[in-house]
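Final report, Chapter 2: Outcomes

The project's central promise was a pipeline that accepts a single protein chain and returns its three-dimensional structure in a standardized token representation, suitable for archiving and comparison. That pipeline is now operational. To close this chapter, we reproduce one record exactly as it appears in the project archive, with the input sequence first and the structure output second.
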Amino acid sequence: MGYAKQSNRNNRSPARNTSGYKRQSYIEGNAARKLETAPQRKRKPVSQNKHKANARRKQQVKVMPMNIAYMGVMTAALVVLSIVLLGYVRLQSSITLHVNNISQLESELNSLKLSNDEMYTKIMSNVDLEEIKRIAVNELGMKYAKEGQVVPYSSQGSDYVRQYSEIPSN
């Protein structure tokens, strides 16, 4: 004859139920009991009129929010959104236009600096300091300073000195 043994807590079944449902014991042998199931609920037959009423009610719920006030609010929101988006697009195009203008002006500035540097180099290479000295001494009557004619003067951080009166001689 078969013999049934229920397992204790230490000898759990391999299919452990951890989801919080009622635990079932593992029974060895041929005297396993049947699982109890919940009784089936009996459904009441729904009349054809209730189906039509439910369908009409669902349809009314879908149609009901589309009244004039709702459409007015949605139209106003759409207009505001359109105005904001148009402003944003105009602002973006303005920024792009300014960036392109700035880059054009920067390239023009660089070309002008380059031509200015070339012209300065050309002018400095054509200056003959010996010719300037010859004209200043021979034609304009310049003379070199003699000893005692040079007066040292210390400035207070400026690059030039303004003379408002004669320098006193000692």
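Archive annotation: The helical segments are 48-63, 68-126, 129-139.
This record, like all others produced under the grant, will remain available to the consortium after the project formally closes.
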